[in-house]
Amino acid sequence: MKQARGIQLDAVIDDLNTPVCLFHEGARAVYWLGVPEDAAFRCNVYLLTDGDAGYLIDPGSRYSFDLIYRRVEQVMPASQVEGLVLSHQDPDVAASMVLWLERFPDTPVIASPRTHVLLPHYGITDYRAYDTEAHPTLTLPSGNALRFIAAPFLHFPGAIATYDEASHFLFSGDIWAALDMDWQLKVTSFEEHAAKMDLFNTEYMASNVAARGFVRQIEGLPIHAILPQHGSVLGLEHVTPALEYLRTLRCGTDLIYPDLG
C-alpha cells in the first residue's frame, strides 16, 4: 500500500472500500478501516501500526469482523495485532473481540476496569486484560506511547479516549460522534457537522459537567485530529471549535431535568 509521510487527512480519497491511511511517519501509521455501511449510525474502526505491531481501536461488532479482518490483512498480517483497545463495552465497539480472541487468544484487550467487568457477558472470560487505570500509558516498540484518558459518563462510567503521542490523534470513542446519512470521512464544515453531532451527543452524553470535565483533562494536549467511533474525522482546524462544542454542550440530564441544573 502506497503511503505518504505525515498527516494525510486532506488527501483526496477515491476509494473507501480499502483501508485509508490518515497518518504515516517513520514506523507509525494510522488507518481508517471502516465500516462503509449505508446508514446514519456508521461505525469507524481504526488501526494504528507501530513497526510490526498493530493496535485496533474499537474493533467493532461481530457482523463487521470479516470485513475488518480482511482490511487489517491489506495492511499487515492480522497475527501482528498486539492489542484491542476498547473505549467502552457496547456491542458496536467491542463484540468482535470474541472472534479476534478465537483466532489469536493471547491478544491483550485494553480497557478500563468497568469495561472489563462487562466483557465476560460476550461469552469469553479467560483473556489477557490490560487495565487502563492501573497503566494509563502504553509504550510501543518505537518508544512512542498511547495514553488512555478517562471519560466518565461520556457515555459509560468507564469510557476512555486514546491519545497517540506520535500522530497527536485523539481516538474519542463516542465523544463527538455524529449521525449522518450524507457521510464523508473528514468534516469540511464544522457548523454543518455540529447539528449532526447534536443528534448523538445530546442523547447519549450524561451532562455538561461530564463534558466539561473531559475537556479539562485534554485541553493541554497538542491534538491534530479527533477520530470518533461514529461520524466523521475532525481535522486540526476543527479541534478548537470541537472543544468549545463540548464545553457548552447541554445534554442528558441537563435536558431531562432542566429545573435541577
Structure description:
There is one protein chain. By secondary structure, this protein is an alpha/beta fold. It is 26% helix and 24% strand. The protein contains eight helices and 14 strands. An eight-stranded mixed β-sheet has the order 1-2-3-4-5-6-7-8. Strands 9-10-11-12-13-14 form a six-stranded mixed β-sheet, with helices on one face. A hairpin with a 5-residue loop joins strand 13 (225-228) and strand 14. Helix 6 runs antiparallel to helix 7. The termini are far apart. Mean pLDDT is 92; it is low at 1-5.
**Oligomer state of the chains in this structure:** single chain
Give the spatial strand order of the biggest sheet: 1-2-3-4-5-6-7-8
* Secondary structure tally: strands: 14
Share in β-strands: 15-25%
Q: Helical percent range?
A: 25-40%
Secondary-structure element pattern, one letter each: EEEEEHEHHEHEEEEEHHEEHH
Rough outline:
globular
SSE class: alpha/beta
Question: Major sheet: size, sense and barrel closure?
Answer: 8 strands, mixed
